[in-house]
Specification:
Layout (H helix, E strand, L loop, with lengths): L2 H22 L7 E9 L2 E4 L12 E6 L2 E12 L2 E9 L8 E4 L19 H6 L16 E15 L7 E13 L6 E14 L10 E14 L4 E9 L8 E11 L2 E9 L12 E13 L4 E14 L2 E15 L3 E11 L12 E15 L2 E11 L18 E14 L2 E12 L6 E11 L6 E11 L4 E15 L2 E15 L3 E15 L4 E12 L4 E11 L1
Antiparallel strand pairs: 1-2, 1-6, 2-5, 3-4, 3-6, 4-5, 7-8, 7-28, 8-9, 9-10, 10-11, 11-12, 12-13, 13-14, 14-15, 15-16, 16-17, 17-18, 18-19, 19-20, 20-21, 21-22, 22-23, 23-24, 24-25, 25-26, 26-27, 27-28
Length: 544
């Protein structure tokens, strides 16, 4: 069997499995709706409960202007209200946002319960419903959440370059809380890809290869005021430390905490364990205030990486976040390299500001936001690039600024502009970019969105512009929803000669809510001087 035959076989097999899944999906149930009553102490309270078919651990969706903006998990249920926690969201939630859910149906033969008669109508309108309190610490409930997705991406190159590829892929996010009724938790996030190409692109990009990446796979134990983590760890308090294979111990006090970590730095390219490179560190964090008014979080720590006992990199890490309700948010991150040993003779100095980021977002009024960001970065000597001659290792400094804003002109019309500028040591010409968009919600009904964009870039590599038009529409039948999206993208660049590129993109997604199954697909047709051919991506996902 030739390679082309294998690719066609896998392609046909994937579609056969896809259609089989569609055939075995059960009948959809009717969908219920509710409204957000109020938001307090990190919980979202809605005006429907057990009487409407909502149960504990159900997932419900928050919709605004015909678009899903958040997923909530029900934690406590009363007859006519429920308390939920936010699992994911794309914007801040508001009172009166629409909540959609799939009600549980009664079992066949179950007795019908008569409604309870109240003494007076006014009593039922004024007496508040009491939600049950959370379970005590010694009665922890085990909860399991996750999402698994299998898909394929393929490109049929019609140009002379012959860059066809076929790539099956798998992704999983998995989280278990209170395993066995104990304060024991596990979380996993990973992806796997198998790449098949017509030819080798380079020594680093082979004809066939596996590309696996484990972002984290850790077991956590948190009995009281301390937490122990084991496995492939990605710290929530010190994100600049990256991931490592080993352990982390954290002590939590009121408003602050301290942590230590140790283990091995995984391979950055293939995410494989790498016991030759050790990693150690410690940090102090502060966590004060409340998101409803003012909130401040900060971390300061030191992380060192060593290869066979010799220093590769030692970094002083600082991070700070400040929120003032919905009006103001500030984020700052800095990395200062501590150069000693062989690194002290590289000419970078004992202290080197290798990275600095600062971003600010401010709400001028309810319909307008402005933002600004500044970045600074430098190349850093490590063991991996130690043998590169100074003449080839360019100690480049880059500084960049980006600013812009969004303005809601009306309930259905929004516009925004972003401007960027970046300069690099040794380059006489700074890089400049600008983009602008206009979005029309409820174009012809509440579930249709039109977005028009224009982008322009001018740097030392190219100069050009890229307009695009994006049409988005959601269709719903009972508890099933289909989203269809069409985008036309055109770009023109000036390099040694003028190059033009166009893309016609179709997006589709299908959500079968009772079974929590999602089907997604994208189709690109690309034509022009840079690339030409058919690009397809399909996936089947399940969440629990």
């Amino acid at each position: 069997m030739t390679k082309r035959d294998r690719i066609n076989y896998l392609h046909n097999l994937f579609f056969a499995v896809l259609w089989f899944i569609l055939l075995i999906i059960g009948t959809a149930q009717a969908q219920g709706t509710a409204k957000i009553k109020y938001i307090a102490a990190g919980m979202v309270y809605i005006d429907q409960g057990k009487a409407a078919g909502i149960e504990i651990d159900d997932r419900v969706q928050v919709w605004r202007n015909g678009t899903p903006v958040a997923i909530l998990r029900v934690r406590h249920v009363a007859p006519h209200s429920a308390a939920c926690e936010v699992e994911s969201q794309t914007t801040n939630l508001q009172v009166a946002d629409e909540v959609r859910f799939t009600p549980h149906t009664k079992q066949a033969g179950a007795p019908e319960m008569l409604p309870k008669v109240r003494s007076s109508p006014s009593e039922s309108q004024t007496r508040p419903e009491l939600l049950p309190p959370p379970p005590p610490a010694d009665q922890l409930n085990t909860t399991i959440r996750g999402r698994a997705e299998v898909g394929v991406e393929a490109f049929q190159d019609q140009s002379k370059f012959g860059e066809d590829f076929y790539q099956p892929q798998f992704r999983i996010t998995y989280k278990v809380e209170n395993l066995g009724g104990m304060p024991l938790h596990f979380r996993l996030k990973a992806r796997s890809r198998y790449q098949m190409r017509r030819r080798n692109i380079s020594a680093a990009v082979r004809e066939t290869e596996w590309r696996n990446r484990f972002y984290y796979a850790e077991l956590s134990y948190q009995p009281s005021s301390y937490t122990l983590h084991f496995g492939r760890i990605y710290s929530d308090y010190m994100r600049g430390g990256g991931s490592w294979d080993g352990m982390e111990a954290v002590y939590h006090a009121t408003g602050w905490g301290i942590g230590v970590l140790g283990g091995f730095q995984p391979d950055l390219t293939r995410s494989e364990p790498n016991p030759d490179q050790q990693k150690y560190g410690g940090y102090l964090y502060l966590d004060r205030g409340d998101y409803r008014s003012r909130k401040y979080k900060a971390t300061v720590g030191v992380v060192g990486q060593y290869i066979q006992g010799e220093v590769s990199r030692e970094v002083l890490y600082l991070q700070a976040n400040y929120w003032e309700h919905r009006r103001l948010s500030v984020y700052q991150q800095a990395e200062v390299d501590l150069n000693r040993g062989w690194k002290a003779n590289t000419g970078a100095g004992q202290l080197q500001l290798s990275r600095f980021n600062l971003s600010i977002r401010y709400q001028v009024h309810a319909n307008m936001h402005i933002s600004a960001a500044y970045t600074h970065s430098e190349n850093v000597r490590q063991t991996e690039n130690r043998d590169i001659p100074d003449s080839l290792f360019f100690n480049a400094q880059q500084q960049g600024f980006r600013g812009g804003g969004d303005w809601k002109l009306s309930p259905s019309l929004k516009t925004g502009t972003s401007i960027g500028w970046r300069v690099q040591t040794g380059q006489t010409k700074p890089a400049f970019s600008v983009s602008h968009y206009l979005r029309v919600n409820s174009l012809w009904d509440a579930q249709s969105i039109l977005t028009v964009r224009y982008q322009y870039a001018d740097n030392r590599f190219l100069k050009g512009h890229a307009p695009s038009v994006d049409l988005y529409r959601t269709f719903e039948w009972g508890s099933a929803g289909v989203t269809v999206r069409l985008e036309h993208y055109n770009q023109s660049h000036e390099m040694s000669r003028t190059l033009n590129q166009q893309e016609l993109r179709w997006y589709g997604s299908y959500l079968w809510k009772p079974q929590n199954i999602t089907l997604q697909g994208q189709y690109f047709y690309q034509t022009g001087d840079l690339r030409q051919g058919h690009h397809l991506w399909l996936s089947v996902g399940y969440r629990w």
